[in-house]
Design a protein that fits this description.
alpha/beta, 9-stranded mixed sheet, 32% helix
Length: 385
């Protein structure tokens, strides 16, 4: 069977995430490997068309990677009938308008999150895509991390028995910029530009909890702007107007409680930058980006509180067992790109749609309301009219 070329407009690839994860490690890697194999045995090869504001940056990326087409004119790209998919990895505040234009042009939509700045706008995008009949998807990359794939394996096997609770720790120290270059762009710390760790991370926590465990029914959150002054890319100081840390309790359907701390102001004393401990009646696990450790009920030692006695050499972590890989794990962004391409070209199942993305934004809004009011906020079921 003859290979099919799928032209994909990629907006925002001059940014760190758009370039590294979506362009080079996903779309270009798929193209180099000969495309995505569909259920009928045929293959689809993605061909990126770069879109952005900086002609110099786009030209440089295109020349480096042998990409024929790039443009700073989004409208002209969207008007091209040969381009079937629009992908967005722009700054959050610019995303909604671009997605609306792409849907109006009849393009299939794949996008980073949050999909819009408000829940109502995110739901409107999902409704527009549904009414236009375009396939749509939202990046939910952490589900495809090796550590969480191992965690899913444990869940599917019944390892935990009844899941009781989840405890998550995420974050690292992001340099302020005055004396060392920060690892994140300055807009992340400006609320007026769509910044803040709640809007950035709560959508992630939503799909992890929803897809692996159960829907979130309520949230209680506290936020903080621990570092009030940071330095922008041009070296000038600015006031941080968005929160850089959030501490939340999520109540899941079925009585499961999840506690997740998110912070860009924490120095890492963990094996990985994000870890989730899941405790159940039959066993527990700690899953990170790549690794997963377990302790089953029958192998659980008797812990006794005695502050006057030293901990055995090696400590409590040595009492856990590592879950083997037992498989080869590809880049999570690439895996989801392959699934979305198959969804567009063959109609295969893809549950991570714009409505799913809207539910993640609903959790972020609820978390911010809880932090502002000091109250527990319940989440209503989100449906399209």
């Amino acid at each position: 069977m003859q290979d099919r070329v799928l032209a994909v407009a990629m907006n925002g690839v001059t940014g760190r995430m758009g370039y590294r994860q979506h362009l080079t490690r996903s779309v270009l890697a798929i193209r180099k490997a000969g495309g995505v194999e569909l259920p009928d045995g045929s293959r689809v090869v993605p061909e990126p068309v770069l879109v952005g504001r900086s002609a110099d940056k786009l030209r440089r990326i295109a020349e480096e990677h042998g990409i024929e087409r790039w443009s700073t004119d989004l409208d002209s790209v969207l008007s091209d009938p040969g381009i079937e998919v629009y992908f967005d990895a722009q700054i959050t505040s610019a995303r909604e308008e671009a997605l609306r234009s792409a849907i109006s042009a009849g393009k299939h939509i794949y996008t980073e999150k949050p999909t819009a700045s408000t829940l109502s706008a995110a739901l409107e995008l999902a409704k527009l895509a549904r009414d236009a009949g375009v396939r749509n998807g939202v990046v939910q990359d952490k589900l495809f991390l090796p550590g969480l794939l191992k965690l899913r394996r444990l869940l599917d096997s019944g390892f935990f028995g009844r899941v009781l609770s989840i405890r998550g720790e995420f974050g690292y120290w992001v340099f302020e910029g005055g004396w060392q270059e920060p690892q994140r762009p300055s807009w992340n710390y400006r609320a007026e530009d769509g910044g803040g760790i709640v809007l950035d991370m709560f959508p992630h926590w939503h799909y992890i909890l929803e897809q692996l465990f159960a829907p979130v029914r309520a949230v209680t959150a506290t936020t903080a702007t621990h570092i009030a002054r940071r330095w922008a890319e041009d070296g000038s100081p600015y006031a941080a107007t968005a929160e850089d840390a959030a501490y939340a309790v999520f109540e899941l359907e079925g009585g499961i409680t999840a506690q997740i701390n998110s912070s860009w102001c924490v120095r890492v004393d963990r094996d990985e930058l994000v870890e989730f401990q899941v405790d159940g009646t039959e066993g527990s696990a700690v899953a990170g980006l790549r690794d997963c450790r377990i302790q089953h009920r029958v192998a659980t030692p008797r812990a006794v509180w005695d502050p006057d006695a030293p901990v055995d050499q090696g400590g409590y972590r040595d009492q856990w067992e590592r879950v083997p890989d037992n498989a080869e794990f590809d880049n999570g962004f690439r895996t989801q790109w392959e699934q979305f391409i198959s969804h567009v070209c063959a109609g295969t199942r893809f549950p991570f749609d714009l409505l799913s993305g809207a539910r993640g934004l609903q959790l972020a809004e609820a978390g911010l309301r809880s932090a502002a009011s000091g109250n527990r906020v319940e989440l209503e079921e989100v449906e399209l009219p």
